[in-house]
Write a structure and sequence with these properties.
Elements lengths: L9 E4 L6 E2 L1 H14 L7 H6 L5 H10 L8 H17 L6 E2 L3 H10 L4 E4 L4 H10 L8 E3 L12 H10 L6 E5 L2 H10 L2 E5 L13 E3 L2 H12 L8
Parallel strand pairs: 1-4, 1-6, 4-5, 6-7, 7-8
Antiparallel strand pairs: 2-3
Helix pairs in contact: 1-4, 3-4, 5-9
Length: about 230
Amino acid sequence: MTMNLTHIKAVAFDLDGTLVDSIADLAASANAMRAELGLAPLAADRIQSHVGDGVASLVHRALTDSRDGQADTALWERGFTFFIQHYHRHLTVHTKMYPGVAEGLNLLHGFGLPLVVVTNKSERLAVPLLAQLGIDSAFSLILGGDSLPEKKPSPLPLRHVAEVLGITPQQIVMVGDSENDVLCARAAGSAAVAVSYGYRDAANLHADLVIDSLVELFALLKKSAELPQNLRV
């Protein structure tokens, strides 16, 4: 798959499932929370199926083991407090960048494009996680699910990015691995790129483009920039 990316002036990335594989640490904290509350552990793939809409939703889903589950308020509050404290202490025990991420970020940064993170993970968790992995300095802006009044799939995060960078949402490409990423991009008028290795099946996301690594994205952006003027759209 190819597409003309000559108009792109910034790249926004999802975090979990796109830049990093964090399931092992999320599952460990979710199961530590369940153990604290007298519940049996869940398999890592069950925790993975509950990821994508922020910590508040993850706690509800991890407590009920249901995508649409809503835990009792008192139980959820106990679970949320425990989860945040446990996970904050164990952000990168097992969490790793996906292959090609470090190289891709370096190439894109050298290409002169502002890079931002737009995640539904809480900002107070996303920022230290990126710092511990040593890639926080690559980003001009890091937006968490609690940074603005609305999170993905709302277009607000990408509109905010555009306003901060002084560009239009149409000049941003959103790179992610979930429905929320594609829907956010669509609503904002941004290009939607899905990674093939994420937590969801990229073939079912209906993105504009599917890539196997961030290095591939750099190559496509570089190729688009080298197109003759009369072939640009």
